[in-house]
Design a protein that fits this description.
The chain has eight helices and nine strands. By secondary structure, it is an alpha/beta fold.
């Protein structure tokens, strides 16, 4: 009897102006993906870069046959994620960052495929090892409390690595109003409200480089975005 077919996964990685980081990161990423018992396609969703990011991905395609490039004109992390997710034709779609990825998480998440529609890598779940600075850890805790109070979410962490069943994406993503920082958060919250099964795995997090976005600048944008999600949901769109 032939072995069962491998699960198929599209890994979406939004990037913007990562020409300095990509040459070292991509080989490490594919080493991790080689550990996963799945047919993995990596989609680098380049959005609005002004450097050689896209050219470097095209060059890397000569080495990595399962690497694809998605190009968007406007710098927008959430919009790049949305486009990559919506274009995926595999059963599963995963989100990684170019400086935050894990073959172990993807393997463990796929092992939950019979009992979950979304699997989140949580920095706040029991057993998580969050080695980021105190300020970043406090920001994650605060954001989670806001989601609990404002959106009645019960998950412990919506940011970071995740694996989502593609039919959930196709059903829920068209309802999502957020781009930028909150696309995946809103996707998870709307899926949670719709009754999809969500599992969380403890994440190990150690910053590989200094954060590229200002936490202070993100706070008002994030608060405004959460209230916009709440208003949209109350308006009958989720």
């Amino acid at each position: 009897m032939p072995p069962p077919p491998l699960p198929a996964v599209t890994v979406v990685i939004p990037v913007h102006n990562e020409a300095d980081y990509l040459p070292g990161a991509l080989p490490e990423l594919f080493k991790e993906m080689d550990l996963v018992k799945a047919a993995v396609t990596v989609v680098v969703a380049e959005n609005g870069s002004s450097d050689a990011t896209a050219d470097l991905v095209r060059k890397a395609q000569e080495t990595f046959a399962n690497l694809e490039l998605l190009e968007l004109a406007t710098p927008d992390y959430g919009a790049a994620m949305r486009e990559g997710f919506m274009q995926a034709t595999t059963e599963w779609v995963a989100l990684f960052d170019i400086d935050y990825f894990s073959g172990k998480f993807l393997s463990d998440a796929l092992n939950l495929s019979e009992s979950a529609d979304i699997v989140l890598a949580s920095k706040r779940a029991d057993g998580a090892d969050d080695r980021r600075g105190v300020t970043r850890r406090f920001a994650t805790w605060t954001f989670n409390q806001i989601l609990k109070i404002v959106l009645a979410s019960q998950v412990s962490d919506t940011h970071g690595m995740k694996l989502v069943r593609s039919d959930v994406v196709q059903k829920i993503a068209p309802q999502v109003i957020s781009t930028t920082d909150l696309f995946d958060t809103e996707l998870v919250v709307r899926a949670e409200r719709a009754g999809y099964r969500i599992a969380e795995l403890p994440a190990s997090v150690e910053e590989m480089r200094n954060t590229r976005s200002s936490l202070i600048k993100r706070v008002p944008r994030t608060l405004s975005g959460v209230w916009a999600i709440r208003a949209s949901m109350r308006g009958g769109r989720g």
